[in-house]
Amino acid sequence: xxxxxxxxxxxxxxxxxxxxxxxxxxxxxxxxxxxxxxxxxxxxxxxxxxxxxxxxxxxxxxxxxxxxxxxxxxxxxxxxxxxxxxxxxxxxxxxxxxxxxxxxxxxxxxxxxxxxxxxxxxxxxxxxxxxxxxxxxxxxxxxxxxxxxxxxxxxxxxxxxxxxxxxxxxxxxxxxxxxxxxxxxxxxxxxxxxxxxxxxxxxxxxxxxxxxxxxxxxxxxxxxxxxxxxxxxxxxxxxxxxxxxxxxxxxxxxxxxxxxxxxxxxxxxxxxxxxxxxxxxxxxxxxxxxxxxxxxxxxxxxxxxxxxxxxxxxxxxxxxxxxxxxxxxxxxxxxxxxxxxxxxxxxxxxxxxxxxxxxxxxxxxxxxxxxxxxxxxxxxxxxxxxxxxxxxxxxxxxxxxxxxxxxxxxxxxxxxxxxxxxxxxxxxxxxxxxxxxxxxxxxxxxxxxxxxxxxxxxxxxxxxxxxxxxxxxxxxxxxxxxxxxxxxxxxxxxxxxxxxxxxxxxxxxxxxxxxxxxxxxxxxxxxxxxxxxxxxxxxxxxxxxxxxxxxxxxxxxxxxxxxxxxxxxxxxxxxxxxxxxxxxxxxxxxxxxxxxxxxxxxxxxxxxxxxxxxxxxxxxxxxxxxxxxxxxxxxxxxxxxxxxxxxxxxxxxxxxxxxxxxxxxxxxxxxxxxxxxxxxxxxxxxxxxxxxxxxxxxxxxxxxxxxxxxxxxxxxxxxxxxxxxxxxxxxxxxxxxxxxxxxxxxxxxxxxxxxxxxxxxxxxxxxxxxxxxxxxxxx
Length: 779
Description:
This protein folds into 3 domains: about 20-110, Carboxypeptidase-like, regulatory domain (Immunoglobulin-like); about 130-240, Ferric Hydroxamate Uptake Protein, Chain A, domain 1; about 250-480 and about 490-535 and about 550-779, Maltoporin, Chain A (Beta Barrel), CATH 2.40.170. Helix content is about 5%, strand content about 55%. The strands form 6 sheets. It has a 22-stranded antiparallel β-barrel. The protein has a 5-stranded mixed beta sheet with strand order 9-15-16-13-14. It is globular, with a radius of gyration of 27 Å. The two termini are about 25 Å apart. About 45% of the residues are buried. Mean pLDDT is about 90; it is low at about 5-20 and about 100-115.
């Protein structure tokens, strides 16, 4: 906590508060020259925003300089006006006439509102100003408004809203993993740069979650060590940023299994000119397991500072501090020769956790990000990012391993573990015309450094008969663990990996309806090896160079309404070692072909994507059967499937989000016994998700709403070491009722309404029926 306080004081003290400011004043009128009320006026790419009053007038206070003013209202075209704000004076602009869109005003009034879950705008997916309809890549955005409606209190539940994800899994240290297109995906990207975490993530600071589908090596790099990408895609957490007025909320949630959660979000300008803005999000979360033991206690702080240096330069500095004490989640691995073929048949008493509340680990995380945005000239912008992440984990992490069909061992991995990353990234973005063709380009340089230090030991503490636990069941405690660790063999080691990358991505609008994309990344990866501190021996040192291309094509038969797209995308994963002949391994490479259609209809009230993809991974290692202890790098893996996503606002107050995914994954060439099987971690073949809600508008029940939805996953018939073992399908239903008023919000949520027993692809039993009650007060 002392480190974070010092950091905040330092950041605030470094800010100069004497920026030169001025005012911009204007008036918005309807087509019949009446005052346009509720029109939004914003200085592009800044937090300076105002809304017109009853006379249609708006006033914006901002640093002196040149800007692009964006003026918009539901049902009208966005106006773009170049403006100049003088120092210490007010600039007046001519009256702005708001023009209706192609649809009649009466049609807009019938629709009545914006689709709250259908916004697909992102500055991170393409790293350039590119709309969803122009982008040949598919991605899903989950906004904070949806998470609030669903009373989401843990990161795992976010993925219920993503097509193809299924049920997320949790490692012994709390780290969450989802599935995308048949591959595991970790959440290690925040605001487009490294957000590396080796434990759980608190959702208090999430503005939205972006899931970019398929290999994304060009813009986000490789997947080795501290790398961020998977062949299935990446998850980017977009954090809450400051805005130029005072506001926020305080929220309390209580629920089943001892859930006790308090969050607050406070935003304020720090100077009269509103050029220095500050926002703080925080959470305290306590909860228990549904079993006889198990708990989590965590504290989360996320300060964010914005400084508009002048009209051309702005600075963002964000930090996230997370402190967590927790027992490891229940994770049982059955006996590898088990006679049981279905998770439901395992003779386990799921009321028993096989742990003790004094056997817990401690995780602490501090991530700091600084970003400088500069307008170089009218069509060129610069973004410089500096990121430092630190993760420390100490204490025992527990797992349960079956050794027969009636006994298990309680195993512990203990010792201090430290993970650090440093990233420096520079992007230049241009937007200009070549004749009649619009061209957008991003040029990037990226340096990434990943380092680990550990002094760890893995031990078996005891053996328990899980059919008849007996007296030694309760003897498992920290005293016994420490006794076993006292004679354990610890391995002290450190490791370091670095990557140096350069990339470009270019989008050319050949016509207004047709655009093409071409991109390439060059990545030099250097693994310094793992050093055994005791012996001084270094193992696994190697270097690799990878090229990662990307191509895309988009045609819009109905401009901004229907988009037909196709892409070729590549991702890579660095692999160390040599084969029997001493040849260094190449990076694994995954290539995706994808085509589909996007829809943005009825003023954005119906947003949808459907696509078919084909991913093939090359250079996968497999066992060399002729030379013991060696590998051959000629394995291949296939993943292909269909994904569908729908966001709709059919009627005022009625919102609908739905998704479906089919995935076929198999090893085409692998170790004996694995060829032709579905890879571990690929998730179910069929998954579906749904969430629909209705909010009443007007009358005494104004703000009263109801929500209903859930997730489906088909049978999972292959785990890592249990070929033929089935994890059964699941259909989980959740429901909520809420009352949302300007000053407060009350909500009740029931998860797993049917109280169904179900598992994820790590054979982790998921929570049974549970209830959460939330009260939020708006400041």
